[in-house]
Structures are given as structure tokens and as C-alpha cells.
Amino acid sequence: MSTTAQSRPASAKRPGTIGKTAGGAMAQGLTPRMLNHLAYVTHDVAATADFYTRILGMELASTIFDDRVPSTGENFPYFHIFFRMADGSTIAFFECTDLPPAAKSTHPAYDTFNHVAMQAENPAEIRRWKAWLEQNGVEVLGPIDHKGLIESIYFHDPNGIRLELTTPLDPEWNRHTQQGYADLKLWVDTKEKAKREGRDPAKALIDMIHEAKKRHGRDG
Ligand SMILES: [Fe+2]
Questions:
Q1: Distance 116 CA to ligand 1 centre (A)
Q2: If you measure from the C-alpha of residue 74 to the centroid of ligand 1, how many angstroms do you get, rounded to a whole number?
Q3: Are 50 and 73 found together in one domain?
Q4: Alpha helix ranges (H) inside the chain
């Protein structure tokens, strides 16, 4: 890469320097402690509460209602509800009093890739979850083995949010940092090189993926 990190916007930093510079938060001991909550809009808080408590075994953790959003002051009357997992992290919803349906995705990939993954104890528990969900009329995909890293099942909540229950197969699954930086650099460099040379970045990335899969066997 010919351009320097300083001459580029923050969103396009050189991959080798991402997160590692002296000015980074991690160097100051600032890393978020855990997931506190993810929040989504629901149009049916009763069905949502039934799903997350009775079917997913979470505890109703907390509720708030107000006629105004405290952070922005916007006049959106709402009911806010949090469901608690075993580690204390939560999934939260807002039911607003008068909200039209959300806009549809522009491509089905958004609906496949955007998802929330919750952790299960082990592969046996993943199978117990699958049986339990299916007993309750929930359609389940999997279990899928993700290259020996994790094993997962997939399903949807009543709001259409794609959910995953997963368990690590590799105990170090979230510690592959060095390989991660190498992969990140390969992806970003491939895309930028293609752009510089006036080639199609999408085709260059697909070729790179195919090359990597050939090197590492059928599943990459
Ligand atoms: Fe996932």
C-alpha cells in the first residue's frame, strides 16, 4: 500500500495498525466489559415477551415507559423491555405507540448476515435447544459446524430477527487475533489494489477467497 495511515480517513486505516496504535483505547485499559444490551423495535411486545421468557428461558429483567426519548428528547412514546441471559447480558425491545412497519431490506444478504448469537454450554445443549425450539413450532436450521470454530443453530424471533445459538468447538475461537489481522489486511489490500489498478474489487475479492480455499482445502 502506498498511502500512509495519516493521509487516510480513520475509517480506512491500514489494517496492521488498527487497534494497536499508542493512541488506541486498549492501550489505556479501555475495552467494554461485556454486552449490556442489544435493542430492537418490536410491534408485538406480548409475543416478544412470551418468546424470550417461555421459549428462550430468559428472565424479564427490567422495563421502562415514557412519552419522550431521554437521550434525544424525541416525542416517541414507548414501552422498553429487557430480557436477561445467564451471564447478565440482555436483549431489549421498544414497542412504540404508533410506528409503521420497518422498510424492507434492499438485498436478502442483509437478512441473512444481520443476526444475534447467544451462547450455549456445549454441542449436546445445542441439540437440546433444537428439539425444544422445534417442539414449540420454531423452524430451526442446523446445527452447522463453522470450520471447527463454533457450532450453531439458526432461527427467528417473532419480530423476524435472526437468532443463533452457538457453542465454541475451539476453546480459543475468539483468540485468533494474529490470523485475524492477517485476514483483515489480505481483504482490505486485495480490494484497494484492485481499485488502484482499475479492476473490479468484487471480482478480486472472490478470486482471493477461491485462492485461499484452494490453499486450505475445500472449506477454506
Ligand atoms: Fe453468527
A1: 7
A2: 33
A3: yes
A4: 45-50, 108-113, 123-135, 177-196, 201-216
The total of other beta-carbon atoms located within 10 Å of residue 11's CB is: 5
Provide the number of structural domains found in the chain: 3
Assigned C-alpha cell, 128 = 437440546
Q: Assess if residue 1 is contained within a domain.
A: no
Q: How far is the CA of 113 from the centre of ligand 1 (A)?
A: 8
Residue 115 C-alpha to ligand 1 middle, in angstroms?
7
- The range of the structural domain enclosing residue 200 comes to 177-216
- Does a cis peptide bond (omega within 30 degrees of 0) precede residue 77? no
Of 21 and 83, more confident = 83
d(CA 140, CA 154): 6
Distance CA 86, CA 157 (A): 19
> In this predicted model, what pLDDT tens digit does every residue of 23-47 receive, in sequence order?
899 999 999 999 999 999 999 999 9
